[in-house]
């Protein structure tokens, strides 16, 4: 099965104890997302939940929309320069080898 390919085989003989078992899943939603707008520069930072190895920023011009999707690295911060003036609705989603996690709460960013 695919599970057997992902997890090493665990064996146990009499009197031998096993180490802790880990459930391998996609990461949780990023938390404590914070945006700082300075002119047309938007700096984002957040807390990585579940050891995400990368993040995806989803941005829309209306609540719930994804008009732009940007793949980010593993750092829990990024900066975008020369962002056009407007109101944007953003969500962050972490991912790892087991898939994409749940998105953060949507938040609004206004660029003057």
Which short descriptors sum up this protein?
112 residues; mainly beta; three-stranded antiparallel sheet; disordered N terminus; 4% helix; five-stranded antiparallel sheet
Concise description?
The protein has 112 residues and is mainly beta. The protein has one helix at residues 2-6; strands spanning 31-38, 41-47, 54-60, 68-72, 77-80, 86-96, 99-103, 107-111. The protein is built from one helix and eight strands; from the N terminus they run αββββββββ.
List the SSEs and their pairings:
Blueprint: H1 2-6, E1 31-38, E2 41-47, E3 54-60, E4 68-72, E5 77-80, E6 86-96, E7 99-103, E8 107-111
Antiparallel strand pairs: 1-2, 2-5, 3-4, 3-6, 6-7, 6-8
Q: What does this entry look like structurally?
A:
A hairpin with a 7-residue loop joins β3 and β4. Strands 3, 4, 6, 7 and 8 form a five-stranded antiparallel sheet that branches. The chain has a three-stranded antiparallel sheet with strand order 1-2-5, with no helix packed on it. The chain is elongated. The longest helix is centred in the first third of the chain and has 5 residues. It starts with a helix and ends with a strand. It is mainly beta. It is built from one helix and eight strands.
